[in-house]
Amino acid sequence: MSSGGVGDVPIEQLLQELPLEDSNLVNLSVLVERLSNLAYQTIQSLSDTLPSLTSHAKRAKIFSTAIELRKIFVKLLVIVRWSKDVEMLNRARNVIGLLVEQQWAHEDVFSGLTQVRKILPNARMFDADLVTAIDILRTGTYNRLPKAIKDSTVPQEPMTDSEALEVMSQLDMVLRERLAYSELTPLGLYLSKIESGKAYFEAPELYNICLTTSGPAEDDRWWLLDFSFVDQVSELENLDTILTDPYLDHVYGTSDSILEQSSSNDDARPTLTRLHEFLEQESLQRQLHILYHQLENMFRFNWGSSIRFMLNAESRSLEIFYWTSHSVGATQKTEKTLLQGQLTLTLKTKERIGKDKVVSEIFSGSDAVSHSSFIEVNWSTDDRIQTYLTPEERNIQLKNLDGEELVLRTIQMHSMALMKFFQERIISHNGLSAGSSNICTLRMHAGSKYEPRNCLQLYVTDTIKIVLFVSVITGRLGLKMLESVDSANGLSLSLSQSHDVSLLRLADQINANISQLTELLFTFRLKCLRTDVQTQASWMGLPYLTSVMLGPGELKKLGISDGHPLLFLPLIVIPGFYLMLYFVPGRPLSMALISILTQNDEGKSMQTINSVKWLDKDQLSQYSITGQDLVHVPKRNAPEVSMTTSRYEGIQSRELELALHYCIATVVYSHLEVQFRLKLIPFMLVGATTNMTAPPESSPDPLLPSLCIHAKELLGPSADLASPNVSLQICDWWLPAQRRVEISMKLHLKTTLEGGDIVLFEGAILNLGTGVLKLICKDLTTVIDTLHQYWDQAARMCLLVNSISQYSGKRLNVSLKSVDHTYVRFLYEPTEKEAQKLHLSASIKFYGPNQSNRQRFGLDFSVDEYGHENKEATRRNPHSLIATVLGRSLDSLAKERMDIWYSMFQTNYQMLEITFPVLQTLEPLYYEALTNPDCPDVEIRDYNWFRIHFSENYTMDIRIISKERIMLSDSKSDLYLGQSNHQVHRESQDKNVLSAWTVMQQQQSLHLPNKPNDIPEEKKQIRNKENNIIILNYKDIICLNDIINFLK
Predict the structure, then answer these.
(1) Is residue 836 located within the same domain as residue 936?
(2) Segments in 120-205 forming alpha helices (H)
(3) For this UniProt entry, which segments traverse the membrane (predicted)?
């Protein structure tokens, strides 16, 4: 035996003789696809459920899924390795099949031989066979076999080719004549051809049949030669051993019995008609079984528990229930049929009536009753769904033999009707669209047969758009985020669920109770709107509250009982006020400024809305903060606005920030108005939204007005220094770091200065050219108090400038030099021709209201070096000796009166003018005493009181007693003591001093008052020369130096 065969027979020929054993086999690709789908579904289930689990549950789920996947992949590995030897295994299976056939053949032969052994003893000739007996008697032999043996064993002579062709031709002629005249083809059965003595018939999409006849007469029998079913099923369906072979056995047996029966029986229908009706029913019934087998594969591979089916052989019907995986609760009885459907395929046979009956009689040539069989498809679902379908869409037909295609086509119709039903409910909901169809759009999508073709596109907010769809297989409602709507018609929805946890939870809630679909979507819309504005507020760094515990009926009190507050943004600088963002169905996102008060009602704390101001969102949206400026933004086109309004346009970040700053400025204005009303100060709103024009010096504000206030009631006694009207305006309110209140007024300055804006002190700016004073307050809650503080300082500076400008002294020429920052500088010089021309300067510094030591002024005296040629002689200003005490005196006077500068420049008691001659004389002694111990010391007691220390035992006082006179006196004498006490004090004085004063009094001419009555009674002792007093006029002030030298 060779390795390639047995003897001379090659191995290929031996393999061809082996029977093909392919029954009960499953295609390898089907197994691989099933395991692959199972692994994919396991991974997809993990991805769907993992985001909503806790950390511990996630680890457990991942571990269990890994174990399950390992088992699947092990099975797949076994199949792959086994497939390597599948050819040898199939060959061994075929050899086993051949051995089984040989075994059965041997058993049949053995059984036949055993039966022959039992029959042969009884196989003898009959005793009464006379013919055979005569032959034996005559000839002595037996020459004839029985006829049956002869007919079965002796072959006839074969026909020639020409004889056979002639027989076939005649038989073809017989078939044509019989089918044309005596027995016509029934309706539904079509003659395809007649060839080689055979008539080939076909029933479209049902079966093919081959018949022949034994003769041309009507009683001659028809013979069934061949039959086959016409089934358009998938190549993967191996239905021969399950459905084909049993049906063929039944068809051949029943068909022979029908063909054997003659038409003379009770059934008057032609034989072919009866045969066609039988075969039609058998083909349709087999199609139901094929559909049932396809449903079984659907259940095993993809659909699982989402589909149920039942084949009823008695009623010849197939019931299919899809979307059966829902767990329907007791609270969902009215809505459970929305996501369920049933298909009933029934094999029905009915009598032909009407035109079908007439056509059948024409075709069959008989008026006997004929029947037609068909599979009727009945689609049962909720009546509310059926109303959204046309009669053509509700009429489901079995177009081809594909159960999955029939179910998917029905589900697509169901999904489309369901989406229309949900769309109508969403559009009719007042909180979602308020009758506008733009919020909810029905979309058609392209995709595979397992992907949804119909969905609802929902515009939740401007940034969030979701898609509501129904899963084709499970029938569960799903939600997915839609990134772009531009190509929505070509969008393909994935089978996988959304990874957004909030959408997963919302979908679960909707599937649990479909009747709450609109309410759940509306709640999700509010949540998205709140999240949107929260995100914008967080991105802008704004504080916010998601809820405030308002009392019942507070929103109804505002007229928005159906409103839903989304966010509360507190005004940090002003407690108790909030910018409320709320949503009212049928309107865009709205804003309001509210104030909230906390009240106690029966021991319970309750928050109530005290006041409200509605904000015009459209007006605010026309402005934007660009850099440091508030810029007008062109309004969008009308079509875009209308479309956006129907979709509930949200608020942008710039609008939210601008609205919050606008609320702060509005509340500040409101507080200022209340304060002005309480103090009975009249005011008027100008600019912005009013009809009055804004003040020319203030920058126009497009959103907020300015306040025009009467200066007389606001500024008090010093109101004459300013124009009658004062402008108050919040500037740069959209910039928190630069937000301030500016109070502008026109000052009445008696002189004109060159220069621009100068800062008098922090918070006060004066324009020297226009005379406009701006008081700036950054603390918006203390505007009026700060105004009074700033104005007090500014008014004193204004009085100083006016006093210097209107100086009317005779001994000094005073001129204003500059006003800069917090200083007012002026020049002055003596007017006497014989006096040395001194160019002196003085600076008065004004301290702001926040000075720690409460000091208002500071004086500094110097020499104007640019106004004198001899800089050595004028290096000091005599008034620098009294700068400190003079400033202290001015501060003391400033606490009680505003016109202190008139005391210094305008009144009869002009400080600089009356002190200059004395200080000019004492200034050299003051600085000489610092280096010369023999020089008398000069003590500054006050700006009009000086004491000279000549020795340890004697001092002299110099007092400026009027504008024209000074008084020299002994500092140890009390000028106003009584006579007795003065006598005691006089006796204690040194005789040399007394003699010195006597000599000076004799040498000096005393200029006493002409009228004694002008001196008060208690001061009459001043006329007594014994008091050591010398009174000098200013024209005799030169004698002061001689007196000092004399006393030295």
Answers:
(1) yes
(2) 130-139, 147-153, 161-177
(3) none
